[in-house]
Write a structure and sequence with these properties.
Structural class: alpha+beta
Oligomer: single chain
Helix content: 10-25%
Number of strands: 24
Strand content: 25-35%
Largest sheet: 15 strands, mixed
Length: 595
């Protein structure tokens, strides 16, 4: 084996010393497939290589190959997810320089392949698989390089070792299993153990998640779903239903005293707002920013929670591989609707936090009496009216696949139904709170992206919560006829709305984007939808559209005609409900959109 610390790898004893360091470093001459002889180097940042000229007097390398040109390239350790030893491997070496004719030669030597990714040069946010195969005549040289690279990869923090995978076989275009088979090799190469469960019925994944004990769940580093937004919601609800027991948000009757008429607060609300301030202050002081403590039930305290599994949990994460009809969550957390990109971000251990909305149903219908409350969680969106009617209508045409949403949406749009309702929301004065984690007020729009400063701010501890008394927060209520009532947890970007419902919504800022579409002529509503479907549009810039950033809201249907709620693509019937957002409640295997 050649020995030179400046340009080649040392002998066996020197290799052992290199492996013991915190940042292994080495340099050798090897052959790179389709390139030729290169000087390969490894340091704490990653691998780099440069084409080299002849080391022999006659102008040829040890294999008699003259390199084509002087090229240089590199790959960071953070972009490498696996390295494999290939035993006897065929290396394709190109012969010829300058004006000489190129010819390909093959040589069967020992080799190893470094698996990583490159960012697509033509498609935004897409990560493309990349493999680099190196070879050498000496077996120990190749084995040493594999050990060195693996030692460096083991120092990369946050990468999962064991995952629970749920596959929805009929989600979207019914290709969930095929998509998993496409990305499964990425997990096996990265030596990530996976337990795969292909669901057999609706609610199957939720039941499995709820049945796991905390000790069993702790044996995994996270859960991966192969499906759509609704399927992730099913898994999320199974996970949180038995483990997350916070106090409930306020009942609509508790906040009905603050009424907004024509955009101004009524005198009654102003008089009673001072009485509400202790409730608001104590509720927001008892938990991280964006969490509330408004209303409690007998079994809603955290005292009985299994201490073996904490929520929020920084290490345990969820991964989403898109196979649904819309995949809005995946687009918001990775910037792309691409299974390979999602799989790479999972095995590389990327992390972002995600707000989760808790929705509590108090009454299913106007005639319900003494009904036990039902709790659901939403990761992307909760919508009533138009959104609920579309999801209900689309169920009749499931055989159409994803196209059913366009067909159902057109039918519901032409009906132009409106619904009477009363909505209460916690109004937060963003100017006076002066929190660095809050997005600036318009007209400036700060779009959520990778390394987002707003989402990167950790939820504050109870001792650091600013005073949310009567001067900074108050409950307001609005009544009327609405085409739709929507609450977006994230921007909800998708193929039909490239900027999402709210372009500057964030993954983890502790706010819901409450959007109220009031009764208006059909052409005006069409104009709104047109702006929603346009890149750079202004769908919120209409007199009949109300938009409020709020940590909590309540809803009561007040008309004889009722719609249903659409929770992450699933139907939820509720005449009366309350919702609150939990900032950064779960962590995801994702890096955020690179836009």
């Amino acid at each position: 084996m050649e020995t030179n610390m400046d340009s080649t790898v040392g002998d066996d004893s020197q290799a052992d010393v290199l492996l013991q360091g915190e940042a292994p470093a080495a340099c050798s001459n090897l052959f790179l497939d389709l390139v030729g002889e290169v000087a390969l180097s490894l340091d704490s940042e990653g691998l780099s290589w440069k084409s080299v000229g002849s080391r022999n007097d006659d102008g040829s390398s040890c294999l008699g190959i003259i390199p084509l040109c002087k090229t240089e390239s590199e790959i960071k350790l953070s972009d490498i997810y696996a390295v494999e030893f290939n035993n006897r491997n065929v290396i394709h070496l190109r012969n010829g320089t300058g004006g000489r004719k190129h010819s390909d030669q093959q040589s069967e030597i020992y080799g190893f392949t470094v698996h990583g990714f490159q960012r697509s040069k033509t498609k935004s946010c897409i990560w493309v698989l990349a493999a680099y195969t190196f070879g050498h005549r000496d077996l120990q040289t190749c084995q040493m390089w594999v050990h060195q690279i693996n030692a460096s990869l083991n120092m990369e923090r946050g990468r999962p070792k064991s995952l629970l995978v749920f596959v929805h076989p009929t989600s979207g275009k019914r290709n969930g299993c095929r998509i998993w088979e496409t990305v499964a090799p990425i997990f096996s190469r990265a030596k990530v153990k996976t337990k795969v469960i292909v669901t057999e019925r609706a609610g199957h994944a939720s039941d499995v998640m709820a049945s796991f004990t905390n000790r069993e769940l702790s044996s995994y580093d996270g859960v991966v779903t192969v499906g759509g937004d609704g399927f992730f919601g099913e898994v999320l609800n199974g996970f949180l239903s038995s483990r997350h027991k916070p106090p409930y948000p306020p009942h609509p009757k508790d906040v009905s005293c603050s009424v907004v008429n024509g955009g101004s607060e009524s005198n009654e609300a102003a008089d009673r707002n001072e009485d509400l301030s202790p409730l608001l202050s104590s509720s927001l002081h008892n938990r991280p920013a964006g969490f509330s403590n408004f209303r409690s039930s007998g079994d809603s305290s955290n005292t009985g929670q299994d201490p073996e599994f904490a929520i929020p949990n920084e290490w345990f994460r969820f991964g989403l591989i898109p196979a649904g009809s819309t995949d809005a969550i995946v687009i918001c957390i990775t910037g792309a609707r691409d299974p390979v990109t999602s799989a790479l971000q999972i095995v590389l251990g990327k992390r972002v936090r995600l707000d989760i909305a808790q929705v509590v149903r108090w009454k299913t219908s106007s005639t319900s009496k003494d009904e036990p409350s039902v709790v659901k969680y939403a990761a992307s969106f909760a919508g009533y009216g138009f959104y609920g009617d579309v999801i209900t209508e689309s169920e009749k045409y499931r055989w159409m696949g994803p196209k059913r949403y366009d067909y159902a949406g057109t039918k519901v749009f032409l009906r132009h139904r409106t619904y009477e309702a009363e909505i209460g929301y916690l109004d937060i004065n963003l100017d006076k709170t002066n929190r660095s984690s809050l997005p600036p007020k318009k007209p400036e729009r700060v779009v959520c992206r990778a390394n987002c400063n707003i989402c990167a701010t950790k939820p504050m501890s109870s001792t650091e919560i600013p005073d949310f008394g009567s001067k900074e927060s108050r409950w307001l209520t609005t009544k009327g006829r609405f085409i739709s009532v929507g609450a977006a947890v994230i921007s909800c970007r998708n193929s039909r709305a490239p900027d999402g419902l709210v372009a500057d919504a964030h993954l983890s800022d502790g706010f819901l984007e409450l959007i109220l579409i009031k009764d208006c002529p059909l052409p005006h509503y069409l104009w709104h939808l047109t702006q929603l479907a346009k890149k750079g549009g202004n769908p919120l810039n209409f007199d009949f559209v109300e938009h409020h950033k709020t940590p909590a809201f309540t809803f009561t249907s007040s008309g004889s005609k009722e719609s249903v709620w659409n929770l992450d693509g699933e139907i939820f019937r509720a005449h009366q409900l309350s919702a609150q957002v939990f900032r950064g409640l779960v962590s995801l295997f994702a890096s955020g959109p690179e836009i």
